[in-house]
Design a protein that fits this description.
This protein has 181 residues and is mainly alpha-helical. 59% of the residues lie in helices and 2% in strands. Strand 1 and strand 2 form a beta hairpin. The longest helix has 28 residues. It binds zinc ion.
Length: 181
């Protein structure tokens, strides 16, 4: 299957812009780093290490789990991403999310950073949901996940006291980011 999600047209995703995103929650940026380095102990890796014998996605219960499936191909992940698209009215592609964000040109750098924080938070919470399912046999509703992401990113934006010089960013935060899902 390969890791097409971190390689865009043969070029590995440049991930350091993620680290310089001032809106990103630190534990999320660390999580992105772990993911890009392929350090997550997904079931396909545990199978290869012969720690487990069976590989089944904890979120959908249908397909085998690997990073690509977990974040981009699983029906649960796709549903969450679809909710983010509706919430923020941004056409985020299903795959190549990480490189899409790096390349994406926007009128406001702050909005771009907030979008990056949302994507990182989504990946972090997908992993948390996967762990919750593994331990408690309970998968939270995608809507619940998106509410957590919204609250977390909004708290980050407000807590950082970012100087909203741009009218565009102010309007976007109030009308889009703050929208009740
Ligand atoms: Zn799945």
């Amino acid at each position: 299957m390969g890791y097409s999600w971190i390689v865009d047209q043969g070029v590995p995703v440049v991930w350091h812009p993620w680290m310089s995103n001032r809106v990103l929650v630190p534990r999320h940026s660390f999580f992105i780093w772990l993911t890009v380095q392929n350090r997550l102990l997904t079931q396909d890796r545990l199978c290869k290490m012969k720690i487990i014998q069976e590989n089944r996605c904890f979120l959908c219960g249908v397909d085998e789990e690997n990073i690509e499936h977990l974040f981009f191909e699983c029906c649960y992940a796709k549903k969450c991403l679809e909710l983010v698209r509706i919430w923020l009215q941004v056409d985020i592609p299903v795959n190549l999310v990480l490189s899409w964000w790096v390349k994406k040109k926007m009128h406001s750098l702050l909005i771009k950073h907030i979008l990056g924080a949302v994507i990182a938070s989504l990946m972090y919470h997908l992993w948390q949901a996967r762990n919750q399912s593994r331990i408690d046999h309970y998968v939270p509703r995608p809507e619940r996940l998106i509410q957590c992401i919204r609250n977390e990113v909004l708290a980050r934006v407000r807590g950082k006291s970012l100087i909203l010089k741009s009218q565009l960013a102010r309007v976007w935060i109030e009308n889009c980011l703050s929208r009740v899902i």
